[in-house]
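Hey, I'm writing a tutorial for new members on how sequence and structure tokens pair up, and I'd like a real worked example in the thread rather than a made-up one. If someone can provide the structure for the chain below, I'll link this post from the tutorial.
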Amino acid sequence: MNRKVMILGGGFGGLYAALHLEKILAKDPEVEVTLVNRENFFLFTPMLHEVAASDLDLTTIVNPVRKLLRRVNFFAGEVEGIDLPGRRIVVSHGFDHHHHEMEYDHLVLALGSITNFYNLPGLAERALTMKSLGDAIALRNRLIAHLEEADTECAARLREPLLTFVVAGGGFAGVETIAGMNDFLRVALRFYPHLKEDMLRVVLVHPGPTILPELGEKLGSYAQRKLAERKVEIRVNTKVAGVSEDAVALSDGSVIRAGTLVWTAGTSPNPLLATLPCVKERGRLVVNEYLEVPDWPGVWALGDCARVPDRGTGMACPPTAQHALREGRTVAHNITAAIRGGTPKPFAFQTLGQLAAIGRRTGVANILGVNFSGFAAWWLWRTIYLSKLPRFDKKLRVALDWTLDLLFSKDLVQFMTFRAPAASHAGEEARGTPVGSGR
């Protein structure tokens, strides 16, 4: 009877667990490895803001899972339930969302996290987020739509909220998003004859005293200064209190007239984890140093949905991509050891560095304890992330897009999914006009 390994989630942790299992275990005909994910692609999230800012084409930062994995099975579906005592999962898929039950011997939980709006008024209904490819496309469409609307004479009185954009959260996602937005909007304005740069207002709201706190005060202050020089308004020690159709309320009592709020200020573990009878800390599954869930042999967890102990500090490992992909490799090794008989390996990894792009070919970075800023940090950002992007053809496409971006202005094209207009009139064929003739 085949041993079944089920991986739930196709982010950095889940995908790299699958990639490593493909090399060391999936060749075994007595082992069946399956990856379950809602999308049929792996999204390289560090470059997501570049799609929103029209620096990269949307297809360049996604990789089809079926091209990445040859021996590991792939199931495109939504995880609906997990039965740990029964060692099975329930997934739905298809146009009718019908259900399947799938059994497992080893289960890898790499379900990631979701956006948390903290029950703030209006956010769930009106705020944009930056976690998926659809989010990046929606933000890009919103930016262009507001420019198009504001350029019309009939919208002259509404230009203030149309041309005011607020990003909540001064971490990596928020800073890179607002830097990309600001560059895109200011470059695009010259194509709109009724708009001037002084009409544009871009605001970053951050609850702490300095943005990018993960990089330290020095680099955070540098990034803050550079963004301010580029006319980004930064509101520190402030939180978003709520949002309406054309206004964002802040915790200091002020109100910004804005029609766009991008929320990057909070995440929560996947809510499916709350249904599991496991020990949790702040919603994340507590795992041991081998990434196994205590009291549930054969159940492993990693990435955003797990509290992974750091052997060096005794604290939890940060939920970053560089940790998740290495956790995936460790899980693959330990599952192989459990199936074939071997010595499990404890997870041990120290952060190599952290980087952020802050627009206009500048960045901030801390690599192995050494600070970098300006062009050097931006070059490091692009070089390191390009090297981490899976598959050579995607690397080539990204490098080509970046090169063309040096030569040409950014595209102002909205990616719309509406069907083309159509009509049905009797007698058209009788008049000799074939359908689709273009005449």
